[in-house]
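INTERNAL AUDIT FORM
Audit reference: QA-55
Scope: verify that the stored structure record matches its stored sequence.
Auditor: D.O.
Record contents follow.
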Amino acid sequence: MNPTSIPTSNAVLQLKNVHYRVSSGDDQLAILKGCQLNVEAYESLAIVGRSGSGKSTLLALMAGLDSPTEGEVHLLGQNLSPMSEDQRARLRAKQVGFVFQNFQLMPGMNALENVMMPLELFGMTQAREKATAALEKVGLSHRLHHTPQALSGGEQQRVAIARAIVTEPKILFADEPTGNLDETTAAQVQQLLFDLQQQTTLILVTHDRQFAQRCQRQVTLAQGLLQDGLQ
């Protein structure tokens, strides 16, 4: 089945003929070559593919962290193409969460301050209370005042997840969220993400096929195009 055949009535994300090219000397290197995709609300979707296939690039385009060379990305009913970076940032701030493989926590801030940061950045109310609740949700109520260097890798990733969900996003993107974790800790983080998926749409990039198979749906990125299933 082609990804475009998924019904669009309740789609929170749509890719329409998305191309992405980068300069390589005097030439243009095509990373994405016309990707089509629809994702429904509260769906869990895994994107798999070989290293270097463009999975992280695709995820960044979906979240509005970058713009396609050609085509359209519609996120939560809004076409990102004509929007400025500030407009996309405001959309992400309140409705989109993003979890990175390398956590991207601020080393000089403790766990609570890291999770409060997106709320304070956009002037949202009750930042401390909401950040505390998010950290409790990921099982870190006892680590609020620890800085990242005092936390294990799994704890750092859980802080990053708390930061991503503190605004109660409608869609959560995760880029290789367990790639830097040991097997046991990775399994715990995976379970946490699927527990959270009851409240949000989950789209993740992973090289772990077993992790991918836990999602309701899988697509493979190969030769710049998306294909349904694990190829």
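Auditor finding: record pair retrieved intact. Helices lie at 55-62, 85-95, 111-121, 127-137, 153-165, 183-196, 209-213.
Action required: none
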